[in-house]
Recover the amino acids of this structure.
């Protein structure tokens, strides 16, 4: 079912609160979880099941792809502590891409060099004037790397910083959550954090050049998941407790609602959109499923496939060549890889450092996958423990599906973005 509705006046809408069962699941946005821990160097390969014809609905069993283990000997790197540098090394090349990872429990952001797979700096947000409970959640970075952005749930801000981590702009927004940067326009889309039980049913559209913000009603409560269509001005928004996906046309202000199939309650965490914009994949935390939609017509999404996954599929990303979709499984302590030709599970990756995975990004050349991990339950035993806990960023070789590096960070690593990579 679709409903195309002109954008109403910008007024707050009350959103229904979830019951105790759903509320318990919301902690996953900022807290660790108990769950099965992967064995270090866990190995074994299970041959994948034969896949059906492309773009046909199916529900393969979880883990039906090869289960690949991380190497016990994967290098582990630490780097700057929160007491360390807030800025990059003076001799760091100005044209080298960077990755930005929030440490929500520590009011910090870790900056990683994807070329050397090392931690360069840890930005202490309190030293920049923000609160100890700023709760940085997600990041985005400009394609040229000159500026990057971070949502601060606790301070109700979206902050713009330059490459030397100096604050150059702010936009006020109640409980900001995920970010999606439109590389073809000046817009930065912002949703609400999933930990907010009753936030406004609006998303923010920030003009990045001056950080002015307009909030637009998306007609669904508790908007959280977000993706920007690479073909034009459309943004896709999911609700934490409504069985609909909103498509917003930023040019006309039109909102179209597409029904999510099935008679079960769903909790869509995030989207991944194909490089050509014609496929949209949603991760459903509550039912351990990935939902695939045909987005050829952005205003009318059509369901294509349902894939059962490991527990709690989280942030997702398409490979630059469009052949794979990757996402972490937060309670499975694993990463799932989907084959986009057959919509079957191509591989399930488990191993050292994968401990409640949250954010995910792929480098622009498509060779490396970076996965941030809460590690709130201590599944990963750090080589250089930090006093307030240790998060990780795991580096995976996309071709071999093997873990090549574990980068230790401050506690509670969450939102992740890579300059020049996917998602934008």
């Amino acid at each position: 079912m679709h409903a195309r509705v002109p954008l109403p006046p910008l007024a707050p809408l009350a959103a229904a609160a979830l019951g105790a069962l759903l509320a318990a699941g919301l902690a996953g946005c900022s807290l660790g979880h108990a769950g099965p821990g992967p064995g270090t160097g866990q190995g074994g390969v299970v041959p994948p099941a034969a896949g059906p014809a492309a773009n046909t609905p199916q529900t393969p069993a979880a883990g039906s792809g090869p289960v690949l283990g991380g190497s016990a000997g994967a290098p582990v790197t630490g780097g700057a502590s929160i007491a360390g540098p807030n800025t990059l090394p003076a001799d760091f090349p100005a044209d080298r891409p960077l990755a930005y990872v929030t440490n929500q429990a520590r009011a910090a952001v870790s900056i990683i060099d994807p070329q050397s797979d090392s931690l360069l700096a840890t930005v202490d947000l309190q030293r920049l004037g923000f609160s100890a409970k700023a709760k940085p959640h997600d990041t985005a970075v400009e394609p040229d790397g000159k500026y990057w952005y971070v949502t601060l749930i606790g301070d109700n801000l979206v902050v713009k910083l330059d490459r030397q981590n100096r604050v150059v702009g702010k936009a006020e927004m109640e409980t900001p959550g995920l970010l999606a940067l439109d590389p073809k326009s000046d817009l930065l889309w912002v949703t609400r954090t999933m930990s907010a039980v009753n936030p406004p049913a609006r998303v923010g559209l920030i003009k990045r050049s001056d950080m002015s913000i307009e909030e637009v009603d998306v007609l669904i409560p508790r908007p959280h998941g977000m993706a920007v269509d690479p073909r034009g001005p459309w943004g896709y928004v999911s609700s934490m407790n409504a069985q609909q996906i909103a498509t917003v046309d930023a040019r006309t202000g039109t909102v179209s609602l597409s029904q999510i199939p099935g008679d079960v309650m769903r909790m869509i965490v995030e989207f991944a959109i194909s490089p050509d914009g014609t496929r949209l994949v949603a991760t459903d935390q509550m039912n351990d499923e990935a939902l695939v939609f045909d987005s050829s017509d952005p205003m009318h999404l059509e369901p294509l496939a349902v894939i059962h996954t490991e527990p709690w599929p989280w942030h997702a990303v398409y490979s630059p060549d469009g052949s794979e979709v990757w996402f972490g499984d937060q309670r499975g302590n694993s990463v799932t890889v989907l084959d986009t030709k057959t919509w079957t599970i191509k591989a399930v990756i488990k191993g050292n450092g994968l401990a409640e995975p949250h954010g995910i990004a792929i480098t622009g050349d498509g060779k490396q996958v970076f996965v941030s991990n809460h590690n709130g339950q201590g599944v990963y035993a750090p080589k250089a423990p930090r006093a307030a806990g240790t998060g990780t960023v795991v580096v995976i070789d996309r071709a071999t599906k093997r873990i090549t590096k574990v980068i230790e960070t401050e506690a509670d690593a969450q939102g992740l973005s890579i300059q020049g990579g996917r998602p934008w």
